[in-house]
Design goal:
The protein is mostly helical and 264 residues long. It is built from six helices and no strands.
Length: 264
Amino acid sequence: MGLFSTIRDIVEKTMVENKNNPKEPTANSTIFDTIKEQVDKVSKDTSPQADDRSVWGRLEEKLKEIQTNNRENPKEDTAPGSIFDRINDQIKKEVEENEPPRDKEDAEVKEWEAWQREQEEKRKRRIEEAEKEKLEQEKEKFEKERAEYERERAKELEKKEKEERKEAYEREREKFEQEKREWEARKKEMEEREKGQERARKERRKEMEERYKREEREDEDVDFDDNEEEDFGKWKKRKKGNIPGWARGRGRGRGPGKGKGRKW
């Protein structure tokens, strides 16, 4: 049939117009290849006696099916609906121009019905496209909000982590300062203790030196008479309480014949 050759030309012409139109999104060439395959398939399944209007009706259904599959396939770029409308309109125009004359009233009724169907389909497509656009906008808005939320959450986590590190550092610093104060206090206590012990040693040393000097003076003041044994006993009794433990009974006293002074 010459109609199918014309339809192939219409598809080719629409593809070129779509490619050269900067105001219209360029459809993938596979869409037009699929349309051509369906045209060839309908051509093979159509008898030579079939009228053009029935062929157009079948092709119109195929175009709707191709458009729906393209729109619902996430792996394909969605082709603009205008290319399907143009192909369908041009096929319809070609069929109507080559259609044999009929009763005028019947043709007007059918034309009116066809126009109503066309308008209904366009309205549905507009609604679907509007819903799709709305969904895309909502999706984009959701993605932006989620990205903003993730950024804010990351900032909060980073801030919280810094605060925790700062608190841990302050605790360690406070612990160190406390240990330092305790160590300094112990050090000061030990120094005070050593100073006290040193003072006590010096006082004991001084006391012993004074006692030793006093005993030396007392020894020098002793005047023994003829009764040396009696005087020595008195001296020893008097000196017993003053002789250090380390000196008593060890031959280091000041008895007769044991000192560096006079000998008795």
